[in-house]
Design goal:
Elements (H helix, E strand, L loop, with lengths): L8 E5 L6 H11 L6 E6 L4 H12 L2 E8 L2 E7 L15 E3 H9 L6 E3 L3 H5 L7 E2 L5 H4 L9 E4 L4 H12 L5 E5 L14
Parallel strand pairs: 1-2, 5-9, 6-7, 6-8, 8-9
Antiparallel strand pairs: 2-4, 3-4
């Protein structure tokens, strides 16, 4: 027997990359009534970790996910206002200028790139280590909680979520790099 999930609104985010699926989801969920379900269709593989994390942080219920032909269909139920939480940003940040200056002066930095593998392959800060945000829960033990980490993504949103995930795991020396690789104009390594 197949159960049909009642969807109150569908949000089309195909072809959009981080941060747009989260930004548009936040706006769409505000327009729903308590208990209504939003379906978000996205092709950005990073949307899986992004929307699950956003739902958890804000108190909305992430019901589940279906993948069909490269389209991720997310289902989120709007929480009652008394159950929602303010979406607070990770407090420790650094700028691209600070990263560039430290690297130029020869300082060795631990840069954690949480973008998807294809994004990482097409250009990253030299020496950056790749652990996609969606794999962080399973792979955080590959990192040393005693080390300083500069966490970067494309825009600073996914890396913000990654910093909070790592902080919950006991990491205390984290900085979210704002705004991210979309504005990095320094040296890059590429695999392609």
């Amino acid at each position: 027997m197949t159960t049909i999930l009642k969807v109150d609104r569908t949000l089309e985010c195909e072809g959009l990359a981080c941060p747009l699926p989260v930004v548009m989801t936040k706006k769409a969920i505000e327009e729903l009534n308590t208990g209504e379900v939003l379906e978000v269709k996205a092709t950005d593989k990073g949307s899986v970790a992004d929307l699950q994390s956003w739902s958890k942080r804000t108190g909305h219920q992430y019901i589940g996910l279906k993948e069909e032909g490269g389209v991720f269909r997310h289902y989120i139920r709007k929480a009652d206002p008394i159950e929602t939480k303010e979406d607070v940003k990770f407090q420790h940040t650094t700028s691209l200028d600070e990263i560039r200056n430290k690297l130029t002066s020869g300082e060795k930095l631990n840069i954690l790139d949480v973008r998807e593998p294809a994004e990482y392959a097409f250009g990253r800060i030299p020496g950056a280590v790749s652990i996609p945000a969606g794999e962080l829960e399973a792979r955080y033990r590959e990192l040393d909680p005693e080390k300083d980490y500069h966490v970067i993504c494309g825009t600073g949103i996914r890396s913000d979520m990654a910093c909070r995930t790592l902080a919950d795991k006991g990491f205390s020396k984290l900085k979210n790099v704002i705004p991210g690789m979309t504005e990095w104009d320094g040296d890059v390594e590429k695999d392609v």
